Amino acid sequence: MTAQSSPPTSLSIYQPGASIVSVDEINSLAHNFHAKYNRHNIDYHAEARAILAKVSDPAIRHALISLQSLHREFDRRQQRHSVCDENGGLARVHHGLDAYNTSVTNLASRLGTSPTPESVCAALLCCQMFISIETMLGNYAAGMRHFIYGLRIMHQYRARPTVNLDGQLEPCNNVPLPALDCFLIKLFASGRPVSKPMPIQRTSDANPGLFDVSLQEQSRAELAALSSQVLQFLDQVSHMQTSRQVNDMEVSKAQILARLESWDWMYTQSLKTLMVVDNMPVGSKLKFGSIFTLLLHGVLKVVVSLAMSSSPADLDRVDTEFQNLTNISNVATEARRAAAVRVI
Questions:
Q1: Where are the domains of the chain?
Q2: Which terms are listed as keywords in the entry (predicted)?
């Protein structure tokens, strides 16, 4: 299907010549990161500032145009009583997808051989916007590919201090790199918030459906608390400077991985069961919620496992986790498309 009207020359308020970033620009971009940003107490202003500070970079600028164009159309379509604007909507979608492809092409050419620190930083900033776009569109599989690629970049270029095989602290890259892992955790952890944990004990006369909802929300609440702990841990790793801090962080890492393992033992099998219930539509909110919770757990596990590690072999050791994330994100994409509802 083709658009009936040509897209405007520029749908973006972000121009490469701007030297001063306004509060309104920061707030606007922070809103665009999440489909339901105003419903959650999540702060994306640091990410917005970092992107707007480098808007003169062509890859970043085109990714930004794409995010803004597609988010504007997403917002319009969520307004049930909005005036039909099919031609304008198609123009925004086409313009957004063209800008997306231009950004990806630009990054591919720059990262192919001897990438500069600026290109590496641009790639991670663009990954944030690509993930936001794909999540908004319900394509979690594509979003996860961007995340895994970005996480490999963070590891390769030492975005945080690491510990070598001799137990010695190695400083992070001289050029500060965006924390893509923190961004994704915030984005995913805010997707299906719950106000408080709910009891999950099943009684003989309990309604199985209510039990399933209760179990899912309980698992989600515990994972939200773990997400906050992981974000705090990553921030502390970023500021490691002494051997004492290294020891403390190694203890914290082991404790978090143990909690993730405990969560896995308690909830994973039950949630996987909800994913395959025969009489439940693949796109139901309960089934999708189970898939999405498992996806967040997998993200937390791989991020913590790679924290502080410096060897390329560490990436090989989490290949199984990467494959698990890929598989779950594929299922999440299928369920989201089947549901035709927005749950994040």
A1: 1-137, 168-344
A2: DNA-binding, Metal-binding, Nucleus, Transcription, Transcription regulation, Zinc
Residue 270 has pLDDT above 90, yes or no: no
Nearest of 133, 131, 107 to residue 120 by alpha carbon: 107
At 209, list the tokens.
């459906």
Size of the chain, expressed as the number of residues it contains:
344
Contact call for residues 72 and 92 (beta carbons, < 8 A):
yes
Q: Where are the beta strands (DSSP E) in 25-102?
A: none
For residue 170, the SS3 value is strand
pTM exceeds 0.70, yes or no = yes
- Rg of the Cα trace of the chain? 21
| Residue 248 pLDDT greater than 90, yes or no | yes
Query: To which residue do tokens 């009583």 refer?
Result: 81
Q: Which DSSP string corresponds to 124-164?
A: HHHHHHHHHHHHHHT-HHHHHHHHHHHHHHHHHTTSS-EE-
For residue 195 the two structure tokens come to 């106000």
